[in-house]
Amino acid sequence: MKARTRRSLAAALLAACCATSAHAAITVTDDTGRTVRLAQPARRIVSLAPHITENLFAIGAGERVAGTVDYSDYPEAARKIPRVGGYSRIDLEAVAALKPDLVLAWESGNAMAQVDKLRVLGVPVYVSQPNRIEDVAASLERLGELTGTEEGARAAAARFRARLAELRSRYASRPAVRTFYQVWNRPLMTVGRDQIISDALRVCGGENVFGHLGVMAPAVTVEAVLAANPEAIVASGMGDERPEWLEEWRRWTQMEAVQRDNLFFVPPQLIQRHTPRILDGTERLCAHLETARARRSAR
Asked: What are the start and end residues of each CATH 3.40.50.1980 domain in the chain?
């Protein structure tokens, strides 16, 4: 072997060694306070929530996802990833068969008893639970640490924080709009104080009429909504189309939201996922509340 070739090979091995060392002993604290340790950046990841899968793609780690759950449909490449069940019911055998070096779970969406079984198998598990919008940026950065894609994660987080700051500057101090956010109709469900959508409402200068409730997704009654008398009702539903059941509120003509025609829709994939796209949904939400403010003077 020529001396120059030997030197080149030695340099390449040294560079590889240094690169590995730079990522050795990764230690990250998840959203439940648990410490997650990896010997090196994760290469085979199983994501147990659509928002986590989306965030991995957002930081440039999408190709590391070996398995995910139903409804992981963004970006388009996520649709091709093998499924390991739904986020509320995980196929543990399918997860184990993929031989992941990291599982990413969702505290309020996954069954933690199932997640604990994965820990027993010796698989490192990181649990995500961003309850405030700014938590999304921090989640991106921690995922970057776990996957060795820190540069892409920092860039994505910086863009997110800049856009969030701009939305807050524009809307957060606007006159409050008392809002009922409707997740579903039967049972009638809304969002509580610590749910991230309540935070989106605050960004827009909105006031969640059920923001005093400590449950993430409480069931409420029609009578409770009528008593709260919201100025605006915002619905999500399951798909891209405005849900038909939003129009059912029109029978309650004494409600302020109905009198002012403030029945609005935001696609759930834009407002109910803890990803950079939540700012797209928040911007739509802010625009709807601005419409509600404008209608105060029109009547």
From this structure: 21-157, 172-297
For 113, other C-beta atoms within 10 Å of its C-beta total: 7
For residue 270, pLDDT over 80 is answered with yes
Q: Which amino acid is at 116?
A: D
Query: How do beta strands 125-128 and 89-90 pair?
Result: unpaired
CATH of 21-157, one of 3.40.50.300, 1.10.3720.10, 3.40.50.1980, 3.40.1180.10: 3.40.50.1980
**AA letter at 266:** V
Give tens-digit pLDDT for 154-176.
Answer: 999 999 999 999 999 999 999 99
Q: Give the pLDDT score at 88.
A: 86
Find out whether 102 and 146 touch, Cβ atoms under 8 Å.
yes
Say which CATH superfamily domain 172-297 falls into. Answer: Nitrogenase molybdenum iron protein domain (3.40.50.1980)
Tens digits of residue pLDDT in 67-119: 999 999 999 999 999 999 998 899 999 999 999 999 999 999 999 999 999 99
